[in-house]
Amino acid sequence: MKNKSLVSITDLSKEQYFRILDLAEEFAKKPKQNLIQDYVVATLFFEPSTRTRLSFETAVCQLGGKYIGFTDPNVSSVRKGESLKDTIQTVANYSDLIIMRHPVDGAARYASEVSKVPIINAGDGANQHPTQTLLDLYTIRETQKTLSGLKIGFVGDLKYGRTVHSLLMALSQFDSTFYFISPDELKMPSRYKHQLDEKKLSYTETTDLESTIPKLDILYMTRIQKERFSDPIEFEKVKNSYILINSMLAGSKPNLRVMHPLPRVNEISEDVDSNPKAYYFEQALNGVFVRQAILCLILGVK
Amino acid sequence: MEIKTLHVSAIENGTVIDHIPSKVVFRVARILLLEDYPEHILIGTGLESKKLPSKGIIKIKDKYLDKEEVNKIALIAPEATHIVIENYQIKEKASVTIPDIITGITKCVNPNCITNMENVLTKFDVISKIPLKMRCRYCEKIMDKQDLNFY
């Protein structure tokens, strides 16, 4: 991975997933390690983000590196109409690696073509967010001690959810069984189901969250956005069926963990937070370790 | 063969692209970057054909194109043939095939793709030739035949 950009989860082999996850495990045990003190990392956020940006910046700090960048394109030359190419080429002169989030699909791949330093994609529009997928894989392995043979339930917006699609494709390499729990309007697109069919992986589609929970090892929650519904009445009808409350976890397996990419709005009731099966804040912390691992592998210090 | 030469004169040496659907003849010429070619180019369109309802033909004097270059036109002229002429004789004749990578030629169907926002040449990986399915190298959206939108 040394000096290679990380743009899409499909850029990585299964072996590389494990390499990243194993190294992240080392950082979870000992997060502060002065491995990149000679490096300058740029964080270019052309679109707002809290968790992703802060966890990347924390990762850089824990490794002893320095970072430069912007969190709002309105304060950079982008506002003056500078092209992405010019911004990237300039910043590539100042830094050893660029982390970028951009609202346009494919912006990260393009940046990786015009940049002389590697690019880490921290989200390009509706397309890819590979470090999120890797931290999800890490969290699943951490809590279940394996990535194979698990029963994984995805809940909420399965039609548009980038996080869900990306994680599904990564997990489809590990012999998992899937449960797609969503309203009819937001069902998993058929192109993803075809890919599961080709790999002979089994999946179940249902609208019933509560009765599916007892079967699961991982419950992956996502937010349902009102604007995704063509009919607002339809939204009102279904919105409460996909809200997780603590009592719904009563009959769940002891190893079940609830995950969520965050931010949450109301799809997980706050009474779930104190349940030891709630794991979304630990998941967000894992983002730091996984990003430390990715930074070290790309900069070639590990 | 004789009727054809009556419509569009023969060339001594060069390239002939035959069996182009009439309505895309000029687009094929553009894709093959023939607009600035200084030598003779003979173009016929609206000609009769056994293979097509109406065909066009392009004859380029003293120019030889490599296969990859000609294969670019397979997206719009899948039945075209690429003929190499030497001394008024056919030296080589081959059908075009859809290449594995398509650069330029067609726009990406996704309006939020970087190729539609900045000055970036499109690039697609062909994942299936029949039926045509190609994935944008940038936004990773998969396009099929109906989505083709030529520059």
Overall description:
The complex is a heterodimer of chains A (302) and B (151). Helix content of chain A is 37%, strand content 15%. The radius of gyration of chain A is 20 Å and the shape is globular. Chain A folds into two domains: 31-128, Rossmann fold, CATH 3.40.50.1370; 131-283, Rossmann fold. The longest helix of chain A is centred in the C-terminal third of the chain and has 20 residues, at 280-299. Chain A is built from ten helices and nine strands. Chain A is an alpha/beta fold. Chain B has 151 residues and is mostly beta strands. Chain B folds into two domains: 2-95, Aspartate carbamoyltransferase regulatory subunit, N-terminal domain (Alpha-Beta Plaits), CATH 3.30.70; 101-147, Aspartate carbamoyltransferase regulatory subunit, C-terminal domain (SH3 type barrels), CATH 2.30.30. Helix content of chain B is 12%, strand content 34%. Chain B is built from three helices and nine strands, in the order H-E-H-E-E-H-E-E-E-E-E-E. Chain B has a five-stranded antiparallel beta sheet with strand order 2-3-1-4-5, covered by helices on one side. In chain B, strands 6-7-8-9 form a four-stranded antiparallel beta sheet, with no helix packed on it. In chain B, strand 7 and strand 8 (133-136) form a beta hairpin. Chain B is elongated, with a radius of gyration of 17 Å.
Number of beta strands of chain B: 9
Oligomerization state = heterodimer
Q: What is the CATH class designation of the largest domain in chain A?
A: Alpha Beta
The residue-averaged pLDDT of chain A reads 94
Structure classification of chain B = mainly beta
Relative strand content of chain B: 25-35%
Instruction: Describe the global form of chain B.
Output: elongated
Structural class of chain A: alpha/beta
The total of helices of chain A stands at 10
Mean pLDDT of chain B: 91
Rg of chain B, Å, rounded: 17 Å
Written as H for each helix and E for each strand, in order along the chain, the element string of chain A is HEHEHEHEHEHEHEHEHEH
Give me the strand/helix succession of chain B.
HEHEEHEEEEEE
Helix percentage range of chain A: 25-40%
Q: What name goes with the CATH superfamily of the largest domain in chain A?
A: Aspartate/ornithine carbamoyltransferase
Unreliable spans of chain B: none
The CATH class name of the largest domain in chain B reads Alpha Beta
Most extensive interface, residues per chain?
A: A-B, 17 and 17 residues
